[in-house]
Write a structure and sequence with these properties.
The protein is α+β, with helices and mostly antiparallel strands. It has two domains: 183 residues, 3-Layer(aba) Sandwich (Rossmann fold), CATH 3.40.50; 31 residues, no CATH class. Helices cover 23% and strands 28% of the residues. The protein contains six helices and eight strands; from the N terminus they run ββαααββββββααα. It has an eight-stranded antiparallel beta sheet with strand order 2-1-3-4-5-6-7-8. β6 and β7 form a beta hairpin. α1 crosses α5. It is globular, with a radius of gyration of 19 Å.
């Protein structure tokens, strides 16, 4: 299984550009308003890219007028949100780095003027001194490197607002892409649990083995039961 090792975010809200290592336990400490929540949200946006919901999540924040870098910039600088994550095995003999850049759609390019458009997207595999690009996308064009070593075009059916990581579902043909998506989709975010009467925490849940708590806590009882059985 791959573990997250490094995260990079640039052009997002208060994050002009930051790259930081991540361990099995990482704690971010700081005063209110220093950007801790934006770091957390950057991880959520990477998760959304794997799920094919990056454009939706950015739109839910108010579109690019709300999410791009809030500080000063040159008038000719492109408006971009850049995110990347490095993952590797505990033995460090296999690593993947995924990156995506989203930007504004030209006014004539889509029906929604502030909808996020994927500008670049890439996935790089490395093992020792060897490395290769599994995914290399620039705008609507790009290619995927298959398990057989053959480059294949991503395809015209991919929308400008869709990530290839979330859309290409061929696990046999592109196992590295599948592993990156599976790793990122396994992340969970516990930012805010509802505690009112209608909260998912208070509802009965199905008796299904659940080693990981869902983001809304709906399977809390099943997780406790799974842990109880595991430690018997």
């Amino acid at each position: 299984m791959l573990e997250i090792k490094e995260v990079h975010a640039a052009g997002y809200r208060s994050l002009r550009s930051i790259r930081f290592p991540v361990e099995r336990l990482s704690v971010f400490v700081g005063a209110n308003g220093t950007g801790k929540t934006n770091l957390y949200r950057a991880l959520q946006l990477l998760h959304a890219a794997a799920a094919g919901r990056l454009a939706y999540e950015l739109a839910a924040e108010g579109g690019f007028e709300s999410v791009f870098w809030a500080g000063g910039r040159k008038s000719n600088d492109p408006v971009r949100v850049k995110l990347s994550v490095g993952m590797e095995t505990s033995e460090r003999d296999y690593a993947l780095e995924y990156g995506v850049e989203a930007g504004l759609v030209p006014p004539a390019g889509a029906g929604f003027r502030l909808e996020a458009q994927i500008k670049t997207e890439g996935l790089v595999y490395s093992a020792g001194r060897r490395s290769k690009k599994i995914l290399d996308r620039h705008g609507p064009r790009g290619h995927l490197l298959g398990e057989d070593g053959i480059k294949r075009p991503i395809g015209a059916e991919l929308l400008a607002s869709e990530t290839a990581l979330g859309s290409v579902q061929d696990a046999a043909g592109f196992p590295d892409l599948h592993l990156a998506r599976r790793t990122m989709m396994g992340w969970r975010f516990f930012h805010d649990f509802r505690t009112d009467a209608a909260s998912a925490l208070r509802r009965p849940c199905l008796a299904v083995t659940s080693p990981t708590l869902s983001s809304d806590g709906a399977d809390l009882a099943a997780v406790f039961a799974t842990l109880a059985v595991s430690f018997q």
